Amino acid sequence: MCGIVGYVGKRSAAEILLNGLEKLEYRGYDSAGIAVFTGSEINVKKEKGRLVNLVDALKENPLDGNTGIGHTRWATHGAPSVKNSHPHCSMTGKFAVVHNGIIENFEELRTNLKNKGYVFASETDTEVIPHLIDSCYKDNGGDFFKAVSQAIVQLEGSFALGILCQDEEDKIIAVRKDSPLIVGLGEGENYIASDIPAILSETRDVYLLSDLEIAVITKDSVKLFDLEGNPVSKEVFKVTFSENAAQKGGFEHFMLKEIHEQPEAAANTLRGRLDSSLKLHFAEMDSAVMGKIKKIHIVACGTAYHAGLVGKRAIEQLAKIPVSVELASEFRYNCPLIDEETLVIVISQSGETADTLASMRMAKSLNVPVLAITNVVGSTVSREADFVFYTYAGPEISVASTKAYTTQLVALFLFAIFAAESKKVVPQAEIDKVKTELLNIPEKLSQTLATEDAIKELSKKVFKEQNMYYLGRGLDFSTAMEGSLKLKEISYIHSEAFAGGELKHGPIALIENNTVVVAISSDGDLCAKMASNIKEVLSRGAFVIAFVNDATKATHEDCNEQIVVPTLLPLIAPLASIVPLQLFAYYVAKERGYDIDKPRNLAKSVTVE
Ligand code: F6R
Description:
Helix content is 35%, strand content 21%. The chain is α/β, with parallel strands linked by helices.
């Protein structure tokens, strides 16, 4: 999704903006631009495509100045083009604006502004903002703050804004609603950014802006106000993760780095929550609240949804509470049967996904308690949910989610144990087995990484395929869905996941000579059934790659290839099974020569519907 950076200080603004935008490249974008005060004028430079195009353009025609705003755009309204890219300016050039989010009432605003004589230069929703501010500025006798506060209350939708005004040379005004924005604090210089990594090389002290808080930023001060202009005080948030954690750390891609970080990330999720004497410390929620819960809805998108499918099994098995798992984009428009005895669990790595946020708000409006499982401290989800469980996976930069998924699984297992111990409906010995297994997870995840070389070789055999099908039963079906999503999003190979038992109901028609089938079989109780499904596709000429463990490998010796992962309790097994599938997707995409960390058409954080 789009990225914002802003700088006001004494150094070259363009350099800092470009540096920050580069750190936000992972969010996905199709054009980039900056606006800088050069003397007392605002000058803008924008380019379509990669940031390097903008860098080259600025080499030819530099923008020298110490105050500026920058943006990487991911098109929503209007195609990717120079004219649609940000910053957008008011007609007179007095205001320059960068914007993340979507203005839902832009057509109505545009008509009104056109009637007032404003001429539009782009097809974007964003362009109404600088014109509207300009119009409010005239109505308020040239008061920048009042113009912004009066304009933003007319905007429907979501926004994070960085705004320059030609009449106030060394100032940025920043404000957000339903789209992330932070203010970075320096010495004689200050910053804005849509995400911490953008300014981490500059400062670790930030303000996490709340909705409709207006930040007035100069090089020597950051003042926060509410819409009426009353001062707002806020605690400085200290960023604790290392700059290196936001960089590639020696790996060729963020995705590979993040796959390798999974043992440590899982250890961080467990830390302080499950001790070696098997005592659970689930401080995120009160067991009295849990005791009243009779039904759970897990709501999420994409990979987080797949984590939810595993969570359902864990909660139902250990706590005997019925769980439904729903896509946030569907849940928000359904009429779910929820009441005070229902718990809604939203899962979101970023904590900013529009559909997940909307679902959470819908649940809250119905007085239903919401537990958020998220990775991003201070994210919108974390601020609005009743209870928050942080996964502490560290920043996930790769668009394809890996360590976020495994840590979401760990979080859900811990929650299932918490629910089980609140409900006391299964013997403690059964719960303790799961706890013991979880404590070993960081080490087991390290062992799964030993499959890497074999997978690298395997991917060379199949990377030219146009289709691959994933098969699994029970929890392996959830793993198959996640493995298939990883493959399609970064290798652009068409891929679908099927439950083994569904093959005969249609999908088997797709199997022909040499069709690649990825079979996941981690459960000794289900492997005989999987073996039958595998035989069905083998006999029709499929090339079958089986991801197995010591408990199941003997049953699947007839497969063309086998990758063996550590054996875990069947309930926990998805944690081990997914790692080689992530590596498989990675190496297939690498063989195909694709831009793995920035797959086409995708964005890291989907903050629009
Ligand atoms: C896939 C992927 C997406 C996200 C989805 C939800 O690799 O990353 O499917 O899982 O967009 O994002 P969050 O978890 O940030 O709400």
